[in-house]
Automatic annotation (TrEMBL), chain A:
Chief location of this protein within or outside the cell: membrane
Protein name: Amino acid/amide ABC transporter membrane protein 2, HAAT family
GO cellular component: a single term: plasma membrane
InterPro entries referenced in this protein's UniProt entry, alphabetically: ABC_transp_permease, LivM-like
TrEMBL record, chain B:
A cellular component annotation (GO) from this entry: plasma membrane
PROSITE patterns cross-referenced by the UniProt entry: ABC_TRANSPORTER_2
Example GO BP: L-alanine transport
Pfam families attached to this UniProt entry: ABC_tran
InterPro entries with a match to the protein in the record: AAA+_ATPase, ABC_AA/LPS_Transport, ABC_transporter-like_ATP-bd, P-loop_NTPase
Single GO molecular function: L-isoleucine transmembrane transporter activity
Name of the protein: Amino acid/amide ABC transporter ATP-binding protein 1, HAAT family (TC 3.A.1.4.-)
Keywords: ATP-binding, Nucleotide-binding, Transport
Signal peptide: none
């Protein structure tokens, strides 16, 4: 009886194994094709398209990070722009101080963002719920004021990216675009990989019930702090890349709440707590912006109305409109018992 | 002994739920816990499992001081609990729910974790629903999932909070068998249940709580003979024989405090 059962499950595992392999190859080929097209983009598009794509990828990464925090960790941060600023300033100051190629200075953004996140995790994670949200905003505001008053960071005038001079216009635009592509695709890959592993399982349980997760042996606080640090690294790097094109950081623009507002809008629109949501959200966000941004303040009123309508009519965002009808899992992060 | 609580006090603001409670449980014991609603039973479990922090008093498990450890750390040391109001991970599948316990509670990896999660589902009769979303489960199935998750942490001390409510007699019978077999494998069981007749049929010790204090503690039959317990549960005007038959037949509705 037992051996029969075993052979049956073995056979079943085998057939599903073949099926999984086949879809795996199809998915891989599609992904590689898409990646190839995206890499080749600078050779057949103009600068304005490339700049738009830089914005799209960096906004996407920041929204993905915010969504990871809020959707999986239940950590609502309204001060994620602090990491945009920290990451951008880290890269700019390291690059200009050591006359280093800006691309080679990007790791400084990751390292400084992680250190900043670790240090401020201590006071921040003493706060709960709404207090945490307010705390992150205050943190971002304090960082902005501190930078504004730091002469070695250029104070109110900021820092120009002088190390970009001497690099041809085409190469600069293409290079920034590739960096943005790497940040966008890389952050998705990192988060996808994490979600499939132990941390992902822990995060999903914390998202659904902290009390039950804790009772099941999940270290909730540690899980959240890891999440906070990963989100900081992604946001910081995306921030640095976003400012490579503008060649100038300044406290007002770089530590601007608009970054976080856009990230929240993208995540809410696409679907909080899903990997797919921000992808849909960022596309919708840029479509809206390209179509309606000439309407000035009406554009923002429309954005706000869309966000409110989404929250009321489809709280799970655009992605939930699809999963409501059919359970699909394109990223394959669900664990199936065979 | 596996659990030793001395002078535990727990209050929510001005509302003192447990004014001072001492309880000792030996390894391998099967202890039933009864008491009227609001007697502090679930709060007691919360204090043992680390969900709530006691205001004062000491709590030790197998000689180790638990105060200062959070729920996850206590789970790692072998405390598992079910929630009276089920708290499944609604966004996960039934299998993933138990996989969380096997992975983080029992500290298992890879195939071992998968196998342990699967075994817990098999024991609780949820295996056929393994890949369904936990949000599709009925209330009774959710209660079984609570039990499955607790088992999958591979506990030494299992705290069950009303896992039998709402079940049919046949289902209660199956559940009793499962819990007895878990107990016989060496796991200490503390079980809060309103179905007194089910509880006394398997528990070797019965603890009665009222207003956060232990009013009786001992062999079930003797405990149910204590006048104060009879008064609370059965009405003081019953004759002995009548009372016994009520105890034997008691359904959930008859024993609410």
């Amino acid at each position: 009886m037992k051996s029969e059962n075993l052979s049956v499950t073995a056979a079943a595992a085998n057939t599903t194994g073949v099926a999984v392999n086949k879809t795996y190859w199809i998915k891989s080929i599609i992904l590689l094709g898409l990646l190839g097209v995206l890499i080749a983009l600078p050779w057949f598009t103009g600068y304005s398209t490339q700049r738009l794509m830089v914005e799209l990828f960096t906004f996407y990464a920041i929204a993905l990070a915010w969504n990871l925090l809020a959707g999986y960790g239940g950590i609502v941060s309204v001060g994620q722009h602090v990491f945009v600023g920290i990451g951008a300033y880290a890269m700019f100051s390291v690059s200009t101080t050591f006359s280093l190629n800006p691309w080679l200075a990007l790791p400084a953004s990751i390292i400084v963002s992680i250190l900043f996140a670790l240090i401020f995790a201590v006071p921040m994670f003493r706060l709960r719920g709404a207090y945490f949200a307010v705390g992150t905003w205050v943190l971002a505001e304090m960082a902005r004021i501190a930078v504004l008053n730091s002469d070695w960071l250029g104070a109110g005038g900021g820092i120009p990216l002088t190390t970009m001079t001497g690099i041809s216009r085409w190469l600069r635009n293409a290079g920034v675009y590739w960096a943005a592509l790497a940040v966008g695709a890389g952050s998705l890959a990192v988060i996808w990989w994490l979600m499939r592993g132990r941390l992902g399982l822990a995060l999903l349980s914390v998202r659904d019930s902290e009390a039950a997760a804790s009772a099941s042996g999940v270290n909730v606080l540690r899980t959240k702090v890891i999440l906070w640090v990963i989100a900081a690294a992604i946001t910081g790097t995306a921030g640095a890349v976003a400012y490579m094109n503008t060649l100038q950081v300044s406290p007002g623009a770089t530590f601007s709440l608009n970054w976080t507002a856009a990230a929240i809008f993208i995540a809410v629109l696409g679907g909080i707590g899903t990997l797919e949501g921000p992808l849909i959200g960022v596309i919708v966000y840029f479509l809206l912006r390209e179509c309606f941004s000439s309407y000035g303040s009406w554009y923002f009123i429309i954005l706000g109305c869309i966000a409110i309508l989404t929250m009321v009519l489809a709280p799970g965002g655009a992605w939930s409109l699809i999963t409501r009808r059919k359970q699909i899992d394109p990223f394959g992060i669900r664990r199936i018992l065979s | 002994m596996i659990l030793e609580m001395v002078d535990i006090r727990k209050a929510y603001g001005k509302n003192v739920v447990i004014p001072g409670l001492s309880l000792t449980v030996n390894e391998g014991e099967f202890v039933g816990v009864i008491g009227p609603n609001g007697a502090g039973k679930s709060t007691l479990f919360g204090v043992i499992s680390g969900e709530h922090v006691a205001d004062s008093g000491s709590i030790q498990m197998a000689g180790e001081n638990l105060s200062g450890l959070d729920a996850a750390a206590r789970c790692h040391r072998g405390v598992a609990r079910t929630f009276q109001i089920p708290q499944p991970f609604l966004g996960l599948s039934v299998y993933e729910n138990t996989l969380v316990s096997a992975t983080f509670g029992a500290g298992l990896h890879g195939e071992e974790a998968r196998e342990s999660a699967r075994a817990a589902l098999l024991k609780t009769g949820l295996l056929t629903l393994a890949n369904n979303g936990a949000d599709t489960l009925t209330l009774l199935q959710r209660k079984r999932l609570e039990l499955a998750r607790a088992i999958a942490t591979q506990p030494r001390l299992l705290l069950l909070d009303e896992v039998a409510g709402g079940l049919t007699d046949a289902e209660v019978g199956e559940l009793l068998e499962l819990i007895v077999s878990i107990n016989q494998s060496g796991v200490t069981v503390l079980w809060i249940e309103h179905l007194v007749h089910a509880l006394v049929s398997v528990a070797e010790r019965l603890v009665v709580l009222a207003e956060g204090q232990i009013v009786a503690d001992g062999i079930p039959k003797a405990v149910l003979d204590v006048p104060a317990v009879r008064e609370t549960y059965l009405g003081s005007d019953l004759e002995d024989d009548e009372a016994d038959s009520v105890v034997a037949d008691a359904g959930g509705d008859d024993v609410r405090g």
